[in-house]
Fold these 2 entries.
Entry 1:
Amino acid sequence: MKNYISFLVLGVLFGITLIKSEAASWFRIFEMFQFKSFHMYGIIGSAVILGAIVTAVLKKQNTFSGNPIVIKSKNKGFKNYLFGGIIFGLGWALGGACPGPMYALLGSGLVSILVLLFGAVLGAFVFGLVKNKMPF
Amino acid sequence: MELIYKPWAWYVAGPIIVFVLFMLVKLGRNLGMSSNLNTMCTLAGAGKLTDHFKTDWRASSWGLILILGVFLGGVIAFNFLQVEAPQIHPDSVESLQNLGFTSVSQSFFPQEIYSLDALLTFKGFAVILLAGFLVGFGARYAGGCTSGHAISGLSNLQLPSLIAVIGFFIGGLVMVHVLIPLIF
């Protein structure tokens, strides 16, 4: 139960950050793909560099206050990552939102975001149906 | 307090995201947002149609709590933290105005896509549904989205995540430079 409160609080912090940093802004995503501003690259880049340090340290420790640390490795593959990535990128730039921001944008109360999220769930559902036919 | 109301700088947002990632690992989980789309399919009964969704949603319920928090964070930001129109680079403003996006620099959302008026046209509805569909399909095909691949995957030096992020950029560049000018 205590963990659930932690997840909720972390989610709130993540959601506020995505909106207030404008990482969840359609306009910022457009600007990013035009390479016109450092803003989005700064957010993702600083997160990756700091995250890499944190991840390396956590991996060395193996446990954190008694709990085992599991940082999953990604499965091997190429086509699924490239093709899936391209499809994702097309949608990310068109809708100006990836999954995390979608949940946060729903907080604006806009009906359109509900349709966007419904589309995302539908996409995940259709992928589940055709998964075995897709190149991996 | 004034600082919270202004748009947050990248060097504030990046470290906060890493703090969230760090805390999730500490709690025995990995940062990822798009896997929750699968959980929602499972909850909606998609397991009846394919084994892909025959999972125990209880094992993923922590993620649903996390995204409930993300949603609440959005509610708090939009209602209490003065969300304003992003002030993007003048060159991007100009190219958007040329495409007919007059709400640029005036609104947080592009009204040309997200307003109720736009949603209630066939084209507008199709654009939003398609955007969502591509994000959901692509993220699950690639096994992750911006959080799972670009942030936690790259932080863990995973080659698959780098391939996925290169894919994100190919798709995004084609959309912004080729397709958006055709669609709008």
Note: The mean pLDDT of chain A is 94.
Entry 2:
Amino acid sequence: MINLSILFRLASEYLYYPSDRVCLYTNVGYISYGLTGLHMVLTELQTMYPTQACDFGLPDGISWNTFIQYVLVPEVVCVLISDDMHVTLVEAVRIWNESREFGLRAFPDELDDE
Amino acid sequence: MSFDVILPLFPQFTLHELKDFLSRFNPNGLPIEVYMPTTREWSIIVNPEWPITMITGMRQILLSLRPDYTRQFRDKLRLDELLGRQPRRGPLTKRAAASDLVSPRKPKLLRSAFTSTGITPMITSPTPHDDTGTPDPPVVQNPPSSSLSGQLMPTTPTQKSQTPSPNESQPDKTPRFPAGFLAHDILKGTSRYILEREGKHGRFREVFQQVFGRNCSKTTEANLPKIYPKAYAHFSALDYNRQTTITWNELVKSCDNTTPSSPLSKDFIPFVDPIDPVHLQTLTPPPPTPNITTTNILTPITNLTSTLSLASPGALLSSPARCSLVLDLPRARAQFPLDAETLEPLGADEQAVLDANVALIRATHAALGDGINTTDSGDDIPSYESVGLRCPFCDTELPGKQYSNVLLAILSSPKIQTQTVSDPTGENPNHRRSLIGHNAYSDFCAQHVLEELTPVAKLRGWPYPPDFSALPQRVREKEGFLNAVMIGIMTGVEVSKFHSDLLSMNNKQRYDQSLNIISAG
């Protein structure tokens, strides 16, 4: 039984895993702005959209806050990067992946310490 | 041989994509063994374009080249040096450092490190120091100079047979490798030698070659098991630490000297005590004891002869004053012929002098161990220029020759000074060991990684330092874009990629939850 569950788990990771892992909020630093800048973007978006702003039904287990974190924040950040670096949105995703480590190093998450 | 490779891509990758690795370590395209994380087995991959699947969250994988392959490239690529400079996974302990020095994996690195010009020569004649200069540690040294030792310490044929080194006759002319060793490492090396010798491997000659840098003669091979326990007792009596240096000749001499029968023989030559009077002058005197004045430590020979009449001469030979007695040995021997009956234990005065000396040495070692060895450590410990500057905690090589000001400020902060201890190793003389774990030095390592990455940021043109004040306004201006994104999601016309990823992740989480329910039930 245990071996079967492990096999299922591996299969699920292989089948359901997204191809491009940009969206995971905990793994992201916004170029040289780091996690500090990302928190600023998040708080600004939460003030802009305090409640659900659109009519489509969110799937089970996903709140409005989660939607902001995982969809709206990456979209805004991609546009901001493309503005900063004068590149297209596809290039912006690539630059975001490259600069992830530097952003985390330069401006780590200050909320964890408190 | 196995390598940890940090992967740029996942969850699938091919060996064909690791072009740097393959061109460097496998230029002929030979098959490579890979530890497959999904099946947990080593499997040989012949075609480098076969995909390798990884578990999510993994960023590293083990690749191994077969030993018969690596032998072909060892000489070309200098793999020994590369392996020697690989950062260690854990902090270096004393045992690991000693085994590094002795390990058969890096003889080339060891040799290049010791033959480089950056080492301070251990065979030096003591020179008078300025009073303003920093006091040197009481390093174990050779007899003062070749001419003096040649005149006053004539080597008899029996002595020559006991000391197998060819450097004995001409000590000052081009000291070959080894110039000197750390006492700690030499003891570890000899212990390992003896272990190898008692085992069935028959590799003790190689080990001796690696430890002491020269071939093992038959007399040495016979004497070494006897020498080791005596040397250990001698060093522990001297309160050695890992910064004291010693040469092979001194090791043999000290062992000969500690034998109880040697003072009785006619060919007895006293060993020059490492408590050097020249160094004692420059050191700060110990706190004065009520009975003994510190001038007794530095009594010249003329005063010694007067005090000799008070105490028994045999007892004085085992006292710290014998270091100056050696210089005038023939005269002293003529005045006071040695007999077995005259040997007595130490007097109260001499015991007090000895205790004061030992306390002095301990105080200097403690003072040296607590200081930061950042820039002026070259005089105390051998510094290897070929290795360069290293992080004192994670042992990674740092660019430049000195720490930056920020790093120095962090290093001298009370947090690091109280929670970490100086623990120099053979590879990294500035190494420090943490007492409470990685929390003590995480700031330091984060800072030097950031300093390594800042040139990359400037090269790529990333905004650094960024303008945080303008950020909220810029986000507020993107409101129209965000509304368009949400309308696209709602109508299904233009679906955001991040939204589809969120949905798939949500599906995965729900799948995992259902698995947990099944396994629990």
Note: Chain A touches chain B through 57 residues (CB under 8 Å).
